[in-house]
């Protein structure tokens, strides 16, 4: 497979660099996942690939041509884009919006031919939007609206599709459906898919490559290799928002540990460092070295845990 997207020694940003020294590539038939914290440069990188941001250094090649050498129509023929926040055209129906994907192939005033109409009908079916084909966009749920914008990108028939947080407003069923559809498009129709997300866990199931922006650099590679070489990607992050709360020692797998920390933090404004919680054999053990000195707090924790799950006490 040839490299459809090549990035060489790229620096992106505005008055100051956001990400520097980017060297990476993606090929037709691949799915790439772009991850990173808010404000770290994900959308800036996407806009740079689209030719919307001036490059501070380096180059971006689309199908062998520098992005600066392509005009808007040429870029649209190569790349379809779905942003997480898009303006909703007044009085447009779902079919109207998806039909706009055909705009790049025709003059400003055009009529869909029968092949176009058949393709749009098929896109509606794939996205489970057939029953909403004549529904106004303003009347759709967030999830169905996002799917309609994805439908417009599919109708564009570009070899490269970029999606900025495409599953943000989708429930689990629609999220899995969209991601499965994107992967099938990559594999069965030889399209390059790049989507950004806060959820790195999508990578293992749906992405071939990870692009991870961290510390003003882009870490890239095969999804499994990037995860294995960066353990922080496979461990939940515990967020302490309660400054009056001091957690007990929690001995548990990372996911159970995160959930217990979250539960206690929401229910206690006190110092629990004299206690220990241990998860084993699907039970939680609660212990304190000085049980009688901490009896009342022990009972508070015990009662709180009993609301959440079965517990076993150790005195």
From TrEMBL:
<protein>
    <submittedName>
        <fullName>Iron complex transport system ATP-binding protein</fullName>
    </submittedName>
</protein>
<feature type="domain" description="ABC transporter">
    <location>
        <begin position="2"/>
        <end position="240"/>
    </location>
</feature>
<dbReference type="InterPro" id="IPR027417">
    <property type="entry name" value="P-loop_NTPase"/>
</dbReference>
<dbReference type="InterPro" id="IPR050153">
    <property type="entry name" value="Metal_Ion_Import_ABC"/>
</dbReference>
<dbReference type="InterPro" id="IPR003593">
    <property type="entry name" value="AAA+_ATPase"/>
</dbReference>
<dbReference type="GO" id="GO:0016887">
    <property type="term" value="F:ATP hydrolysis activity"/>
</dbReference>
<dbReference type="GO" id="GO:0005524">
    <property type="term" value="F:ATP binding"/>
</dbReference>
<keyword id="KW-0547">Nucleotide-binding</keyword>
<keyword id="KW-0813">Transport</keyword>
<keyword id="KW-0067">ATP-binding</keyword>
<dbReference type="Pfam" id="PF00005">
    <property type="entry name" value="ABC_tran"/>
</dbReference>
<dbReference type="InterPro" id="IPR003439">
    <property type="entry name" value="ABC_transporter-like_ATP-bd"/>
</dbReference>
């Amino acid at each position: 497979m040839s490299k459809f997207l090549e990035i060489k020694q790229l620096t992106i940003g505005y008055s100051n660099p956001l990400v520097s020294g980017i060297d990476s590539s993606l090929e037709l038939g691949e799915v790439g996942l772009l991850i990173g914290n808010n404000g770290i440069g994900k959308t800036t990188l996407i806009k740079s690939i689209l030719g919307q941001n001036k490059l501070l250094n380096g180059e971006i090649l689309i199908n062998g041509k520098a992005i600066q050498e392509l005009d808007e129509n040429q870029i649209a023929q190569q790349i379809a884009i779905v942003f997480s926040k898009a303006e909703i055209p007044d009085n447009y129906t779902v079919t109207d919006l998806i039909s706009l994907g055909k705009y790049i192939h025709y003059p400003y005033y055009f009529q869909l031919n029968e092949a176009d109409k058949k393709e749009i009908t098929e896109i509606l079916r794939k996205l489970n939007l057939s029953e909403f084909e004549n529904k106004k966009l303003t009347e759709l749920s967030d999830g169905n609206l996002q799917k309609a914008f994805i439908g417009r990108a599919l109708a564009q028939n570009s070899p490269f599709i970029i999606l900025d947080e495409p599953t943000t407003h989708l429930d689990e069923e629609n999220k899995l459906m969209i991601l499965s559809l994107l992967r099938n498009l990559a594999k069965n129709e030889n399209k390059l898919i790049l989507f950004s997300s806060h959820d790195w866990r999508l990578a293992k199931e749906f992405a071939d490559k990870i692009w991870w922006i961290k510390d003003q650099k882009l870490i890239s590679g095969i999804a499994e290799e990037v995860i294995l070489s960066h353990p922080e990607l496979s461990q939940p992050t515990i967020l302490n928002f309660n400054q009056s709360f001091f957690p007990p020692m929690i001995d548990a797998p990372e996911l159970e540990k995160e959930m217990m920390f979250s539960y206690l933090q929401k229910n206690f404004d006190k110092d629990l460092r004299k206690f220990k919680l241990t998860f084993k054999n699907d039970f939680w053990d609660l212990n304190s070295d000085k049980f009688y000195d901490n009896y009342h707090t022990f009972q508070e924790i015990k009662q709180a845990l009993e609301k959440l799950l079965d517990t076993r006490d150790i005195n």
